[in-house]
User: Fold this.
Amino acid sequence: MIPQMASKRLRKILFTIALLAIFCLFIKWNFAGICILCLKKSEVTSFKRDSGNFLELPHIDCSKSPPFLVILVTSSHNQNKERMAIRETWGKEKLIFNKLITTCFLLGTTPKPDDQIAISTENVKYGDIIQKDFIDAYYNLTLKTMMGIEWVHKFCPQSSFVMKTDSDVFVNTYYLTELLLRKKRSTRFFTGFLKLNERPIRQALSKWHVSKEEYPANTYPPFCSGTGYVFSTDVASQVYNISENVLFVKLEDVFIGLCLAELNVKLEELHSKQTFFPERLEFSPCRFKKIVTSHFVKPHELLIYWNALERSMDEKCPR
Ligand SMILES: *[C@@H]1O[C@H](CO)[C@@H](O)[C@H](O)[C@H]1NC(C)=O
Ligand SMILES: *[C@@H]1O[C@H](CO)[C@@H](O)[C@H](O)[C@H]1NC(C)=O
Assistant:
């Protein structure tokens, strides 16, 4: 009787230990998984310009019809819904105050040939894709953004302004155009949600982790949140030109900030009131009439917000 009970208890203990071990293994594996991502060989190197040819180009002739504003949207092959929603809403090519606004998507590549066929087919249909051959990964966002800037420099220097944003952002192109026209700036202009006193995050588990080897200094230069920044097109060429001499940082908005510091281009507010929101704002037509960006918007929400915004264009809002 007694030895049997003891063995039962022993089994229970062993079972608990086994569970704990599995739990720990899982956690450890998970940590390792994250760390493989974040501690990848950090190279203190400068950015490599002109790496590779464009695989896809948008069907836009900037010399014939120069856009007032080119909007570059970071995207990936599986974000069809997001791209379609943007094409039907703020990304629809159109004239605003008689100024041409045009939108392009920035994509990298995946190892699957089917994905490439899908992207090429999509570009035949919509003609709004810019793509180069680099692996589409979060930590390649700097490559993706610089590809867009290279495209503007080489194919669309006739445009007046460039915006870089993400596929989960609501952009009020009407208000942005109005504010850019009012601002009357044409060169060395850079605006967005200003981040003036940011520091590198050294915690290994953060998505924005940057090691001392990658970026030794304790502060970042002023930069604008990657969720949406806007600059005069001359800045694109200058950033493209200087990028070779700038430390490569995988956080694209910080990298652009480093380029701007090198170029001595100062960040400016577009309006005395905040208009760029790196966070999510609750939607109301009156509120969204007076903003430029709001983050974390799903494709179906984009359609609802945009329709409501366009319907209420002529309605008065409380000041
Ligand atoms: C970025 O793209 C390059 C070129 O395809 C690739 O070698 C590298 O592994 C990619 N980086 C990440 C973090 O996937
Ligand atoms: C490009 O950058 C170099 C320095 O790296 C500078 O001497 C040159 O003037 C720049 N050219 C343009 C067109 O900005």
